[in-house]
Amino acid sequence: MSEPIMRLEGIYRSFRTGRTLIPVLQDINLDINELEFLCLVGESGCGKTTTGKILAGLLPPSSGNIYYQGRNVRDLRGGDRREYRRSVQLIHQDPYASLNPTQTIFDMISFPLLHHKLVSGQKGARKRAAELLELVDLTPVEDILDKYPHQLSGGQRQRVSIARALTTNPSVIVADESVSMVDVSIRIGLLQMLMNLREELGVTIVFITHDLALAKYFAWDGRIGVMYLGRMVEVGKTQELIRDPQHPYTRVLLSAIPEPDPEKTRTKRHIQLRSEDIPRLTELPPGCSFHPRCPWFVEGVCDKSVPQLGIPASSNSSVEVACFPVQEGEKLQLYET
Ligand SMILES: Nc1ncnc2c1ncn2[C@@H]1O[C@H](COP(=O)(O)OP(=O)(O)O)[C@@H](O)[C@H]1O
Ligand SMILES: [Mg+2]
Questions:
Q1: 154 and 20 share a domain?
Q2: CA gap 93, 186 in Å, rounded
Q3: Contact present, 217 and 242 (Cβ < 8 Å)
Q4: What is the chain's percent helix, strand, coil content, to nearest 5?
Q5: Would you say the CB of residue 44 lies under 6 angstroms from ligand 1?
Q6: What is the pLDDT of residue 322?
C-alpha cells in the first residue's frame, strides 16, 4: 500500500472557556489514503468539525502531528506551507451559511484564483471561473457568474462552494455536512458531485456527517471512521464495518437506521442502552467514555482504562475497534440472540 496522503498522529485538541478546559479531541490517529472516500461519522459534538479544521490547517491541534504527503505540516515553510493549505480544502456544506451575500459568484471564485496567482488578469479569471462552474454543472455559466447568492437555489449555492474550493486544484477535499442542513435532495446531489469529482479530478474526499445511513451508501467502496466524544472508536472498510459492526456504539448507530424492507425493520433488534444520557466533555467518565451507556459494560475493565484502536485477535476483518470486550473476543450476546 502506498503512503497515506494525510496522517493524523496522536491529535489532542482542547478549548478553554472561562476556567474550564474542554477536551474536544483525544488521541486521534487516522490515515487518509490517496483517492479514497473516507467518512467520519458520529453524533453532534463528537469532534468531527474540529478534526476537519485540523486536517485543513485552519486550526492547530493542542498536541500531536499532522502529515501531508509524508511531511509534518509543522515543518512546512513558505511555498511548501502555502502548497499544503491550497491542497487541502474544507467545504462547509451548509448552503445558507457559507457565501458572502455582497459578492457576485464571479467575485467569490476569482478572488482565490487571483490571490494565489493561478490565473493572470480579469479575463483569465473569468475563463477559469467559467470552467469551474461547468465542472460543477452550474449552467448557463455566463448567467450564473454575475448573480448574487440570494438569486440562486440552495443546491446551486452549494455547487458554488464546491467550485470555489476547486479553484486551488486541491488534492484533498474535506466536506463538512452541518446538522442544520436538512434538504435531502441537496445533500444527495452534493455527494454525487463529490463522487464524480473524485474520479474526474483525482481528489481524495473526507466526508463528515452525523448520518451513518448516508455514510454507508456513499462510502461503500471507501472507509468509515466512527467517533464518540472526541475519540475514534472504530475505523475500517465500509463493507466490513457495516456487515459486522464491532464497537457497541457502532452497533447502536446501525440499529437505528431504518431498513427499506419493512420486514427487516420489524425483525431488527433495537439495542437497549444502559443510559440515554451522553456525558459532557467536561465530565467524561473514567475508562471508556461509552461505558455508562454500554449494554456490554464489564465492571473493573471498561471503567478502568481507555481502550486503544486495534484489530481484535479473533477477527478475520481489518476493522480496528477500541473496545475491551470486543478485543477480548467476547460474544456480545444481547445483539446476537
Ligand atoms: N472554538 C470553540 N470553543 C469552545 N468549544 C468549542 C469550540 N469549537 C468546538 N467546541 C466544542 O467542541 C465540541 C466538538 O465540536 P465539533 O468539532 O464542532 O463537533 P461536531 O462537528 O462533531 O458536532 C463541542 O462540544 C463544541 O461545543
Ligand atoms: Mg460539525
A1: yes
A2: 10
A3: no
A4: 35, 20, 40
A5: yes
A6: 97
- Quick one: 16 and 126 in the same domain? yes
List pLDDT tens digits, range 232-242. Answer: 999 999 999 99
Count: domains in the chain: 2
Which ligand is nearest the CA of 45, by number? 1
Residues 205 and 279 both lie in one domain: no
Global pTM value: 0.93
Quick count: other Cβ atoms within 10 Å of Cβ 143?
A: 12
Please check whether residues 121 and 203 belong to one and the same domain.
yes
Mean pLDDT of 47-53: 97
Q: Which of 8, 43, 50 to mutate to test the pocket of ligand 1 (most atoms within 8 A of CB)?
A: 50
Cα separations in angstroms, 329 against 251, 306, 333: 16, 17, 12
Q: Which domain holds residue 287?
A: 261-336
Cβ(234)–Cβ(225) under 8 Å?
yes
Q: Pick left, alpha or beta for residue 69 (phi over 0 → left; psi -120 to 50 → alpha; otherwise beta).
A: left
Q: What is the mean pLDDT of the chain?
A: 91
Q: Give residue-wise pLDDT tens across range 90-105.
A: 998 776 667 889 999 9
In a domain, 29, yes or no: yes
Q: Domain for residue 266, yes or no?
A: yes
